[in-house]
Amino acid sequence: MIKSKNYALLWPLVFAMPVWAGVNSELGVESRYFFEESLFGQDRHQSSLRFEMDYYEAQDGTVYSAKLFARLDREDQERRGYDIREALWTRFGDGWEVKAGVGKVFWGVTESRHLVDIINQSDLAENLDGEDKLGQPLVKLSFEREWGTVDLFWLPYFRERQFPGQESRLRAPLEIAQSNERYESSAEQWRSSFAVRYAGRLDSLEYAVSHFSGVAREPILQPNMMLQLEPYYPVIDQTGLELQYIYEDWLLKFEGISSTGAGERFSAAVFGFEKTQVGIFDSQADLGWLLEYLFDDRKARAPHSFERDIFAGWRYAFNDEDSSEI
């Protein structure tokens, strides 16, 4: 990873724990080392201990599942604690399914940024790439037919975004006062949010249309008199579109949103392709080429750095028993 021109190495070490009664557990040790001094006096070396436990049981059309997560970080107190990533009751029948509890839902097809993925809150204390998510209290009703799948969501409780603490090497330039969060809605965290998504397929084209109405997952960071940044969560309406077209070893991808909230409407999009070379160098490995363009019509007013950018990446999959990849 690269942060402010400082390079870091990450060494993960994972231990598989015994499996019993549908329970899988994992213990991991992670260490980061930075080659240059920090701007705010943090150590070059940062380490942490991670624990995960999964539970799964199915019987007579009902599934019970849970996923617990805990981390103990040596430096950053914001990365010390635990979270219920999932605790779901699922009931399904002929062409329908109901889920209730705490769950994780993923929407999106692109690699660099998931614009339409809005159900779960990002855990930036865990990782700055936004791929790690907090568990979301929800009730989900799904219908599957020949013409596609419809998902309906009720999200009765909102979870604030988690940020790295002052002791983290990957912190923001100003302290984020996470305990001073503010909301546009007077109901604050108990303001219900709702979402609907339709997904279908037409030959080699996969598509999905979604709409979300509720508390924004991405806060607006506003400075206060103490030279801190306070998160402000507006109420938004966001409509999203996902497209993925498969042509031989090419994947053409598109994600776009139109969102209103905090006094303005804006649009953003990510589009590009992924091409996979199978059996590269006469081996069992695959090499994927990725290229995407990111657009946000707010330009300099966007709360992120991806308003006019090109993303390029490579994925080398060894296709071994451990699913190793670079």
Notes on the protein architecture:
There is one protein chain. With 326 residues, this protein is an all-beta fold. Helices cover 0% and strands 56% of the residues. The strands form two sheets. Strands 1-2-3-4-5-6-7-8-9-11-12-15-16-17-18-19 form a 16-stranded antiparallel beta sheet, with no helix packed on it. It has a three-stranded mixed beta sheet with strand order 10-14-13, with no helix packed on it. The chain starts with a strand and ends in a 9-residue tail after the last strand.
Helical proportion, percent range: under 10%
Q: Strands of the biggest beta sheet: in what spatial order?
A: 1-2-3-4-5-6-7-8-9-11-12-15-16-17-18-19
Principal-axes shape call: globular
- Rg, nearest Å: 21 Å
Major sheet details: 16 strands, antiparallel
Strand content: over 45%
N-to-C series of helices and strands: EEEEEEEEEEEEEEEEEEE
The overall strand count is 19
Give the helix/strand class: mainly beta
Structure described in brief:
This protein is mainly β and 326 residues long.
Strand and helix layout:
Blueprint: E1 2-3, E2 6-16, E3 23-34, E4 45-59, E5 62-73, E6 81-93, E7 96-103, E8 136-145, E9 148-155, E10 182-183, E11 193-202, E12 205-215, E13 220-223, E14 229-233, E15 235-247, E16 250-261, E17 264-278, E18 286-296, E19 308-317
Parallel strand pairs: 10-14
Antiparallel strand pairs: 1-2, 2-3, 3-4, 4-5, 5-6, 6-7, 7-8, 8-9, 9-11, 11-12, 12-15, 13-14, 15-16, 16-17, 17-18, 18-19
